[in-house]
Amino acid sequence: MRHHKLGNTGISVSEICLGSMTWGTQNDFSDARTQINMAVEHGVNFVDTAELYPTTPLSEATQGETEAIIGRYMAEQNCRKDLVVATKIGGSGVSHLRNGSKITPETISQALERSLTRLKTDYIDLYQLHWPNRGHYHFRKNWNYNPEPIDVAAHDQEVSDILSVLQKHIDQGKIRAIGLSNETAWGTDSFLKISVSKNLPRVVSIQNEYSLLCRWFDLDLAELSIYEDVGLLAYSPLAAGILTGKYLGGKIPEGSRASIKPGLDGRLTKHVEPAVRGYSDIAATLQALPEQLALAFCLSRPFITSVIIGATTKHQLKSALHSTEIKLDDTTLEAIQNIYRQYPAPM
Description:
This protein is α/β, with parallel strands linked by helices. It contains eleven helices and ten strands.
């Protein structure tokens, strides 16, 4: 298991990050404990969560349970110093999070304290903004995306205010580093410019969706990520399980995420089937599982800091962890690109 620096910090994180958004619904505390133990045994030191989790399904009744499970684990194992913990503050559009209000200095302070309490810790290693206050193209909004007219001066002041309150919490020792999520190149650049001009904390990571089926990051964001040292934390690297092949032929296995969230938030379309079959054929030539090929591809990208994996079973997690052993040669990468050229945006 390789480790990478988190941006310009001294924080070292494993190339695989253990995702947790099923903990509290599909997985209970015992499952989570087993998953964390297995991941740690394989060299993982990085766990990602959010105040919104679990999301399978999303519910006011279970909101915050995932952080509470991680907090209980760290308290019982006395291992806080051994884990790099990332969490996120949610913004507008979720009614049971502060009545759907956007991210502000006030909501950051409130959300941070609640996350610290649930996690049973006095600091967060990486505190992320879950999505922008303005419009964006993530969560399948790309098909109808038009940048909204905004007051850029007001936007910049909002960013400055957010960074200022994050600086306060960094100074208090409650946050070690900050990151973005579901952002665009322009949005990320705004944060970077303002952090420089006002001597405010610099974002060190961006957590966006990235997989063989979703490669928006390959272009402008990749350039920004590499040149500005803002590494990608790739979520949904298996496209919510689609790249395992388990949904081929219209199958919806009992207990799968698609059985809980039909359509997988717009990912499970008729267009993904030929792409998944193509990538599965490439995996077979390597005597690897389709999901291992998908993860190995993400791990090979030059802008990756860590790939976030989620699992509901020990078998799934073990398979994902062994993806770090797969190295893709030029012939395999060319075969992947040939499939990509045929099906560049299937979901």
